[in-house]
Each structure stands twice: as C-alpha cells, then as structure tokens.
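Course assignment 3, question 2. Fill in each field.
Student: A.L.
Task: Predict the tertiary structure for the chain below.
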Amino acid sequence: MSFKSLIGKIHLWLGLSSGLVVLIVSITGCIYVFQKELRSFFYSSYIHISDAEVKSQDIVPASKLLDIAKAQVGTNLNATFLEIGGNDKAASVRFYKPNPQLNDNQFVWYWDKVDYVYTVYINPFSGQVLKVENTKWEIFNLIVQIHTSLLMGPIGTTIISVSVLVFVILLLTGIVLWWPNNRKSYKMRTWFRWKPTTKWKRKNYDLHNILGFYVLFFALIISITGLSWSFSWVRDSIVWAGNGGKTEKMVWPTVKSNFIDKKSEKGIDKAQAELIKTYPNADEILIFMPRDSVASLIGIVRLTEDVIHSWQYFDQYTGTSLDTLLLDDMPSGERLNMLGYPIHVGSIMGLPGKITAFFTSLICASLPITGFLIWWGRRRKSERKPKTKERPKLTLIPDMKNSLAEN
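Answer field:
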C-alpha cells in the first residue's frame, strides 16, 4: 500500500466516524457567527431603545437596575452580571444558577445541569422593564449549547472536542490527498472546469476537493481556537507560539474587598459610574457580581465587538478601584489566547471577518456530505463491478492420461 493510499484510508474512516458531529457543529457555528445581528433583528423591541430617551435622561444606577430585575424574577434569585450596552442598547441583568443537586460530572443533559437562566431587559434611562426572558430555552442559547455540547453534559463536550480534533487531522490529510502530481492536475484542483456533460459525481468530487482547499487555512484557525476551550495543551501551545517559543504564563490579579458588616455605600453604583465615565463609547460593559463577601466586583469592558479591552476590579462595598488589567499589557501569547473568541467567530476583523467565518463554517458543513457521497459512489461501483471468472481447470479423462504416459 502506497503512502497516499494509507492517508486515503485514514481520511475515509476518520471522516465517516466524525462527519455527523462536524456537520452539526459547523451549521450551528454558521448561525452563531451572526447571532448578535439576528438577535438585534428578531428582538429589536426589547434590545434597542430610542435615541430620544438616550439624549434626554441620565442612566439609572446599577443598584436600582438590580432591584428592578429582582422584582421581576424573585428577590431570592442571585444576579450573575449586569450588562450595559452602547447608547442605543437596553441594559440587562442575568440570573443563572446550576442545578445544586448535581456537580459538573453528574448530569447528562443540558436541562438537567441548569436550574434557571433568566435575563431581564431594562431601559437604562427610565427603568422600564422591556422583557423578562427565560434564557434557558432561548433559541440562540440553545444553538450555542448544541455547538459546544450537543445539549449534553461532559459526554457531549468530549464528543464535540474529539470530533473537532479529528476534523483537524482530516484537514491535514486532505491537503496531502489534494496535492497535485503535475501542473495539469493543479489547474483541475484549484478551479471548477465543468462542462454541460460533466456528471454530478465529478461535480461532487470537485466541491469536496476544491472548496476544501480554499477554506483549509480559515478552517484550521476556527478549529484550533475552538479546541482551546477543550484542551489545556492547545491553550498552552497558543501561548507558547504567541510568546515566540517561550513558556510564559500570566499571573491574574487576586484582589479582595474589605469586608464590612454593613454596606456604607453602594459600591456597584460607584463602579458603574467610573466605568461609564472612563469608557463613554464602549460597545459593552459587564459588571460581574462578587461570589462571596470578600470577592471584588469585576468590570469587563469591550470597546469593539467581542474584544475585551480591560478588566477592572472594584471593592464591592465602597466601589473603590482596586486593580486594572489591560489587554495590551498582557504578554503576547496570553493576549493571543484571550483573542480566541473574536478570532473564532471572525469578529476580530469586523463584518468581513464574520462573513469569512460564516462561509468557512458553511463549506465545512458540506465536506462530510460530499465526502460521504464520494465514498458511497465508489462503494456502489465496486459492488456493481462483475467479478473476474476463473478459467476452468483442464481435466484429462483416464484414456488420455494413459496415452500421454505411453508417449
């Protein structure tokens, strides 16, 4: 068996074993690339507010926004974070709680893991409640859960991770199989040279090979950045590569609030005011609630879509700024790792990047289908191929044997 034949066998069986999962991950990825635009279109009635309200009023303090949200879902529920968008966006408060009876390895399905997820959308200038969303069953949240775990628990995440890792191997073996032997073959494998008489099998073969070749680079980037959430060795490799071949990990700040028995000031209001004053044109500001009585408030600022600019740490009681971490101050490898999500969805390059990520995911979704059809067509052809008939053996009758012996 030649080297290419061996690679072909590996490519075939890995593709058949992972094709369905790759198809699901790619399709959901296509949708999620434009999830913000889709949500903005379908949920415009409660995600956006009018320009007149923005110009005429001051923003409601964060503590009051939390109180308004809790009044809608129940004061016994704990808020996870407060999001303050751009000038025309509604504020939102997220309430999330995992199932307290199950740990991370005990659940099988997504709905078993999550006790509740609510998002309360509020006009940040008037305090009017625009929508109470049961985010646990919201369609785009379900899409991302399918994309990352097939709506399952650790088993689903493992299936996704292994399948994407196999897909990376398929991309690499695919370029070996694609590699032309001569100039004429190169021309045929880089563009569609269809004629009116070209059969669908040839067209399907070209769709698999030519489209796969053109999305190879982008598909590898999307796959590797996706794998960084599943495997620590992938994250470490990205950091290592970003540092120019050096192993250098960043130490994150560990700041704590000064615990007092009674809140003398509303710290979250002061933190909110400072964040808005410092970043008046931010695309998004998120304030994460403290996990316990000594944890700090954490403000995350995105100046452009999906790209975190800074992490701000505040005392949860006084609102005093405790520490600031800027993306630009991180080591280059850690910075590259932190840009994994916007690279993954293409938003790092704006609309052109998202369009590229969309079509790359769409073509990746087609590869298992066209690859399966190639295999199925060859399998059917081999079954229809007539078997070579064996030539009958010559049998000598006894009298002929004796005659030949005498001679």
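Instructor remarks: Residues 350-384 form the longest helix (35 residues). The chain has a mean pLDDT of 88.
Grade: pending
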